[in-house]
Amino acid sequence: MIRPLLVLAVIFSGLAAVLTRGHGALGEVLRTTTVNDLTDGHFAQHVDKAIFNAVPRSTTLDGIITGLEYRVLGDAGPQVHAGCGDWLFTMEELRAERHDRDNMALRAELLRRLTRAIRRAGSRLIIVPVPDKAEQVEDKLCGVAAVQSELRNQFWKELDHVEGAVVVDLRNDWPRPGYWKTDTHWDQTGARFAARQIAQAVAHVLGPGQDAVKLVDGPLRQRTGDLARLSGLTDAPRSLAPESEQEREVKLDISRSGGLLDDAPEPQIILAGSSFSLNSGFFEYLQASLSSEVAQVSQPGGGFAGALLETLDKRAVSLEKIKAVIWEWPMRSLVSPPSEAEKNFMRQTR
């Protein structure tokens, strides 16, 4: 009974606030309502939203309001789509923008130029596109189709014909769901699968690794998803927020040959990826699967090629000693606006 009473209390306080000081918002709802809104139920949702927004705010109350909007209205904010069963998705993967195709065309040309640049540096390039969570867990979108993922999948035509690189297709036999419910990234099952697939591709090019690499599993720990934070649901009461998830702490034990005073050889493999390469123990799983130490240069928010472009710009000389570069990037980054680093690289190369 507590939750229904709490919902009613907030609604009535919000209604009172609307009548006393928020009638402007309600008037805006009435002015912008269409016939379709009246027939498909959106009008009631807009009114509910105006009521919730009119409630006087505080940190505690904001959390309650956010939780109620999520539970009652299925609203996780403008940047997050609330699916079924507490599954959250980034709107980046679902939203269509006017320049999506233009940005994909630019990325196709950038792909060709980056592949040539790495080949000239003397390294082998391993390309790892990360599938959209919306596509891999589409059944949890609740009536919404992953249409934009289908558009981005047209980029595989470019990847199928790329020269001088190995492309790892993670879509084959993907361990569904393979993603966290309240986070954009793969979970530890998905990260471990990706690591094994990439290691197979690297071993085919370079042969098996020689290091004795052992994974050490630590205790379980609570994990707060980035989408839960983005939607503000981390401030909501536990009864109104998605249930928190747990991940296993993963550490690495690498044994090298030689004496204690011998210089350790520098890694001959570089991982230049996005935040996926920094999440869910992927880096540890990758080194264990490769039986090789890997140099980590991935960037959170690196998008399509942020880490790789920085490597070419600041570590070009070191690439002469590198045998393979693993380039990981999320498929959703194909349609994002080009970064300044990407624009500069396109201006400087042919």
What is the count of helical runs? 14
Mean pLDDT comes to: 87
Q: What structural class is derived from the secondary structure elements?
A: alpha/beta
Record field, number of beta strands: 9
Q: Provide the succession of SSEs.
A: HHHHHEEHEHHHEHEHEEHEHEH
Q: Roughly how many Å is the radius of gyration?
A: 24 Å
The biggest sheet, with number of strands, parallel, antiparallel or mixed sense and barrel status, is: 5 strands, parallel
Q: In which order are the strands of the major sheet placed?
A: 4-3-9-7-8
Shape: globular
Distance between the termini: 67 Å
Structure description:
By secondary structure, this protein is an alpha/beta fold. It is 43% helix and 15% strand. The chain has 14 helices and 9 strands. The chain has helices at residues 2-20, 23-32, 35-40, 42-54, 59-73, 100-120, 133-136, 147-152, 156-160, 188-206, 226-230, 282-290, 306-314, 340-348, and strands spanning 80-82, 88-90, 124-130, 165-167, 212-223, 245-255, 269-272, 295-296, 324-330. A 5-stranded parallel beta sheet has the order 4-3-9-7-8, with helices on both faces. Strands 1-2 form a two-stranded antiparallel sheet. Strands 5-6 form a two-stranded antiparallel ribbon. β1 (80-82) and β2 form a beta hairpin. α1 packs across α2, α1 crosses α4 and α10 (188-206) packs parallel to α12 (282-290). The longest helix has 21 residues, at 100-120. The chain is globular and about 70 Å long.
